Amino acid sequence: MSRVILCPVGSHGDVHPLIAVGVAMRQRGHAVTLITAEPFRDLATRHGFDFAPTGTADDYHALTHDPDLWHPSRSMKVLFGPPRYERLLRDGYRELVAAIEPGDTVVVGGSLGLAGRVAQDALGVPFVSVHLQPTAILSVVNPPHLGRLRVRSWWPHWFRRALFFAGDRLVLDPLMAPAVNRLRVEAGLPRLRRVFGPWRHSPLKVLAFFPRWFADAPDYPAQLSHVGFVKYDQAERPTPPAVEAFLAAGPRPVVVTFGTAMRRGGPYFAAAVDAFRRTGLRGLILAKSGEQVPADLPPTVLHADYAPFSAVLPRCRAVIHHGGIGTTAQALAAGVRQLVMPMAFDQPDNAARLVAMGVSRTVWPKRFTGPNVAAALTALLADESAGRAAAEYAGRIASEPDPMPLVVDALERVLRSHKAENV
Question: What domains, with CATH codes, occur in the chain?
Answer without folding.
Answer: 3-228+401-421 (3.40.50.2000), 241-399 (3.40.50.2000)
